[in-house]
Amino acid sequence: MDFSMQLLPSKIEFLGHQIRQSFVSPVNGQSFVSPVNVHIEPDNYEVHFKTNLIYQMSVAKEPNNPLQLSNYAQFLHLVVKDHDSADEWFKRAIQVEPQDAEALGAICLLLVAG
Prior knowledge:
mainly alpha
């Protein structure tokens, strides 16, 4: 085993101790940062399906509402991950309101990410 590899665990332990100490108040010894626990829930596709239907009904009622069109496109892009459909809905929003900064910015982000 390489000598530098033998030192690696102790270096990591030392750095971890240094980082933990940097988050402790020198005045009272209490931690500056609260512990964080994260639980990632799986996607709920039933809710996605229902939301998609609600958006479809909403844009059918108000096909010239650029905010509604843009919100639906955002949903398709960020939640459903259907980038092609999101692109179409962003384009519809921009056709309705060519100066809509939100829709223009969102479609730019979609194109950069895609």
